[in-house]
Amino acid sequence: MRINQMIDKIKEANVENKLVVFIGAGVSSNSGYKPWQELIREMDKKIKYSEDPSDKRYSNDELLRIPQYFCQSDPEAYKETIEDNYSFLPEKTNKIIDKILELKPHHIITTNFDTLIEFSIRETGRKIIESRTQNHYAFIRKDQDLISVSQNNLLIKMHGDINEFDSIVLKEDDYLNYSSSHILIETFIKALLIDHTFLFVGYGVNDYNLKLIMNWVDNVVLNYKMDKDIRRPHFFINPDIKPLSKFDKKYFETKNIYVIDAASLPAAVKNLKAEEMSSELGKNVLRTVRYIIRGNPTSNMVSYVCKKLEFFSNLDRIIFEDILDVLDGDSLSYKLIDGVLYCSRDTVKYSEAMAVVINVCEKGLGDSEADFIKEILIKAGVIKIVIAGTSKSTEIILEDKKGKDETLFNAIVERDFETIHEKIKSGTVDKLYLAYLKMFVGDPGSKKTLMEIESSIAEENYAKQVIFAHNASQFIINIALPKKIVDVLSSDEKRYITPLCDLAFEFTQLYAAWAISSMEIMQKYSAFNEEDMQWFDVKDDSFSILRSRIIDTVKYFISNGVYTFGCLTGDFNISRYLHLLGAYIDTMLFFESPHCQREKCDAFRLNKEDMLIITSYIEPDVFKFMLKKNNVEKLDLSKECIDYLLLVLKNVIKERARRIIKGEEDNPYLVRVTKAANVLLNLCDLGEQEQDVIEDIAEKMPDVILNKNA
Helix or strand or coil: residue 294? Predict the structure, then answer.
């Protein structure tokens, strides 16, 4: 296997969340810790085991027996020697470990008992590392830790930790008793050897610990009679300036371990600066890890990402956070605000699934697969990607090549009932969405349409099953409620339909997050806040992201036919959702009030989507109360907002007139929308052209509507 093929295999395993990095003492030695041979030499001198230990090369047996003899002769001195050598921390983090953390492997395993890895996790300032490692790697030092762990990513210190001295594995008895004293850890690592790819870093060819793991590989293969073709490959970084002999490489390959010779790296990689490392071996390890991180995603990586995103093709609109969750992306590194996805050049170079998505969009890799990935991002509301670099930013405009038909979405948002009625009659809409449209216009036939698809819905994907259950729960007795369907889904399945899960479980997390964020942002921009420094760290981005999430959820429900507003009245189990939207609008009115330092937060002003929420979900009397509470007497709405309100008012009046002409009853929802639009427009200083539009609407308004003072 050529070196570039080996690097690709490592990156592909990492994207699939199947990479385990195994860190040895050769990494720690670059931060001033004694290598294993030197620690044993110090113990040798103290117990006078050898006549001249100065240049001695210890055998594997001696590496274990000398600590055994030392501990037996003087346990306190044994403990003190180890603690003196490994309990300190260097001034700076280890750059090899920092780079390994940037890879964000599924698990990290180490035979070192120093705390260098934890130090890097704690001290590294990059947000991308902080968010994934500090919060998501559980530290495993003994079997008991493995029993209680809840995180998916583990840092396994298989030979213990200097801060828990009794857990340390160093002397012969520790190794001989390992299989009985560390049953769970050993079994877990052996299981990983079957379905994960291991990358060994900081080990020598003759390292006893490496040979022990290689023996485990042999035993696993022998016990499970595994064919080489189905086994995942493992990789060993040889940092020596001299490549391994073909015999050594062949020996490793019989155990499915492939050697990455630092001496065989491309010239451009070998010339990379690595002054942070004290030895040439350390520099070569650092260069190799950097080489793994660099470069474009492979076709296999792109295919894997497409497979992970495939379920989203069942939905007409998705939430960007769901993409991040499915691809194990870092929410601090990718921020979607008002249709623009922000990330950094450092983020994009990492070999992880979300970085593959950005790389594909930037470089057009994968052809049809690239188009599919872009299509999924567009479904999530991404219209542009901005990659921040050290000197300049790169902007990528996402072009919708399929030209998604937004006719129905726009018709519902604009309350264009004429278009919706035409679509219902056309017979071109699938029955689940057809039932939604009928519910929206208040057609009693919506119940019949739902009952017609009840028997076949079980054959649909689980997203459609949840949507059907929500919409049908008002009509069909003995139907499974959305919560019951969501309850039986796996955690992986739930990641694809977060808004539907939120609806089933009453938006508990999003509601709590909004309550905290809105309180902080209002304190920050309060007109009565005299530059109180406790609000200095409150980030506008956090609030903006939550705002976008709420707006995107509203759009998600419309696009996917989840009934939450319209002419059909009833209790559709959305009371908590309505409370969330009410709290959202109440907060947004703060930015229109004299209580706010309006000149500092222009980005938070009311927009078109807010007009949709107010006219669709908020009772006019409740909205008037919010206005009074926030002392809002005037609104400075954008032209887009005013034009939208005028269009909605025109369409709703037209629909109400149609119903009256046909002898149908006026609809409470339509009355409410009319009142809400009027309240909003009356708060604005309208121009002549806008006044003319209102007069034109009034002239066409039937007397029966005027008499209702709507």
Answer: coil
